[in-house]
UniProtKB/TrEMBL annotation:
Site (Lowers pKa of active site Tyr): 78
Record domain NADP-dependent oxidoreductase: where: 30-261
UniProt-recorded name of the protein: Aldo/keto reductase
Organism: Salibacterium qingdaonense
Binding annotation for substrate: 111
Pfam families, A to Z: Aldo_ket_red (PF00248)
InterPro entries documented for this protein: AKR, Aldo/ket_reductase_CS, NAD(P)_OxRdtase_dom_sf, NADP_OxRdtase_dom
Keywords of this entry: NADP, Oxidoreductase
Gene3D superfamilies in alphabetical order: NADP-dependent oxidoreductase domain (3.20.20.100)
GO MF: oxidoreductase activity, acting on the CH-OH group of donors, NAD or NADP as acceptor
Coiled coil regions, renumbered to chain: none
Active-site residues (renumbered): 53 (proton donor)
Membership in a protein family: Belongs to the aldo/keto reductase family.
Amino acid sequence: MSIQTSTTTLANGVEMPWVGLGVYKAEAGNEVERAVKSALEAGYRSIDTASFYENEHSVGKAIAESSIPADDIFLTTKVWNNEHGFNETLEAFERSREKLGVDVIDLYLIHWPVPGKYKETWGALEKLYEEGKVRAIGVSNFTDQHLEELMKIAKVKPMVNQVEFHPRLFQKDLLEYCQTHDIQLEAWRPLGQGDLLDADPVQRIAEKHGKKPAQVLIRWSMENNVVTIPKSVTPERIKSNAEVFDFELDAEDLQAINGLNEDRRYGFHPDDFPYA
């Protein structure tokens, strides 16, 4: 197993890498281009961006200039809150596709569940999926209640739900809900913040396995069957974050890390996001 070959199978049979590179807050131009190229050289085959990040063009440029065939790269982007609506989403998708320089996007997500709009937006994603313009569709930052409401009207069920997920916010109920409905949970901010890297159990387990704290946290998500997209623009850290396939956490390790849960978010709760 390696970052280059390790995948999970989505509900529609599409293979999605377990670990990818997130490029949130990576500046367009040299910074994100270098990060993407470093990731691809290190074996990553999944890149996660969004229209809101304003770096899609640079991500596409880096992929085009890479020696890795574009068809071998799993590319994710997202529709932002001010792009919701059926026609608006179709237009937003075309903008993203043009910036990324690809014919087909592997995974297209609704970035946040904008109240009163996300169901209409989902209809546009279903159209894109039915037309073969995207290989998989999903959502981001959806609670189980949002998913329940969406699936009442959905013709195609979400294949992925990307949410904040780390040991401080071990969303076990949401994880179990998604597993029950064959929706792949994906973690953004899987490393939490600095305090999580310095937490005693994480440090101790890292020493036990001869690994780094970030590697332990990424492995913890994987042990919970959660896809992760740690973000970094530092080539050394990008490479290090990929080295998580040569060890496993035992039951004692998992119990210790699970004990860090405080239901604590570093980002917004979906119900409290400033949509207006």
